[in-house]
Queue: 2 jobs
Job 1
Amino acid sequence: FIMKMKSILLFLMVSVAAFSQKIEEKIQSKKLNDERTFSVITPASYESNPTKKYPVLVLLDGEYLADPFSGILKYGNYWDDLPEMIIVAVNQNYGETRFNDSNYGEDGLPADSGAKFFEFIGFELLPYVQQKYRTLPFRMIAGHDTTAGFLNFYLYKDDPIFNAFISLAPEMAPAMEDRIAERLGKIQKPIFYYHATSTGDLEEIQEKTKKLDNIAKDIKNPNVIYRFDVFKNTSHYSLVAEAIPSAFYFIFNGYQPISKLEFNEKILKLESGYAQYLIDKYDYIEKKIGIKMQPRMSDFKAIEAAILKNKAYDEFQLLAEYSDKQYPKTMLGTYQRGMYFEKIGDSKRAVKEYMRAYTQEPIGDLTKDYLLDRAEALKGKKDEPKEEIIEPAPTDTPAETVPTEEPKKDE
């Protein structure tokens, strides 16, 4: 049975992946005075959802980083843990290209071919991709060793063109570790910065990344979200396989649906503010990650379960207001207001709310029949005297009502 389920899962993942496209592109670059090639990997939903826009991930060393980055993204998106995005994989692994592209001078700044490649990315490659593909303003850049060091030059600018940096075993230019730390302390826009090394990495890389970490981890800039990983028993090359998922789940922490662990360890332990927790979660996704999305129905269910368990019935009112904004034509907000009146013992107003569902659209497992049945069950029931609602102290008792995580259905 286990083997059968694994086979089914593999089939589903391959089926999802089959709908993504890898498009070979080329630009005649004026900056480089040469033709440059790159691959654009569009996500599975790109063709079927023609109005959707996606974050952009620029991959240096695209020939060998595209597959592992793309694979982790597809896996994470299958479980709704990671968003879909457009990958732009730049070809650099021929001749001395990747070293020429990353060239810097004695002052530790891009020079000659490196300066030209720096401008090619910002002035030619990104505008081309933005014009041809449906992109969001949220941009990431990633590279390995030589190119990982190079990508940090974009952080030197006052207004970096990238929102997230993934630097894997970086070979840094002179004074780069000090300059990065200085920039992280002063940056005025939200930035995610991830870098990694390993116990088996080159000694110089270990020394410089750890020096950077010693400074950066004490920086108190609210605009910077920072992480440094040191992987054990891995080499300069094999650390990439461990670092990619670590980087993605670091950057997109908070994007995932509310899990049972999050429900028990964070939400249930709140003394109040369950509805606000949901609002803040999706505000964070929009403001920090740059993705505007409707809250998942499973997350609404989790908040409903917390409200019921802690008898914080007043919170249904704020939750209903939020539902009306996010799903205005549906009966979600109506259901939540009906629950509020029902739980405080005002049966007449609960019936009135539930009856409104007759003119509204169903959503999730909420149907007209379900809400009308709730209304019918309350008809004739005498209103109970409203009691003062006292929220209990936080509890560590696991909630039995929290929805379990289910695999996302293919669209």
Job 2
Amino acid sequence: MAVEVRATPLANKIIEELPRRSRAAYERFEADLASRGCAALAYRLSGDALEHLRVVHLTGIMRVIVAFESAAVAYVILIGNHDDRHPPLDIYRQLYALAGHEPPAQAGRDKPPCCDNEAG
């Protein structure tokens, strides 16, 4: 089943400004997401506020965060580097700031699978 891929205005701005190599990697990912849906993603985030968000490693430390409106529509929410050395620029810190939520101290770093094995 084909998935329509959309992006938030913030994600669109980031996509437009990606360097050529990262942009090419993103375009390959977007085509894969459109064709395979959730199976194109690596894992979902854990925690009450973010458990419906999925992640893929694009290149190096660059991540793409995706949410599904339905099985047929996916939204690219945010694209950026996962870099603990520069907390204000870290994609997960940015995500929490956008959500107005901080991870609980016991959140850990679980990476549960994206897709439900039974429902896909």
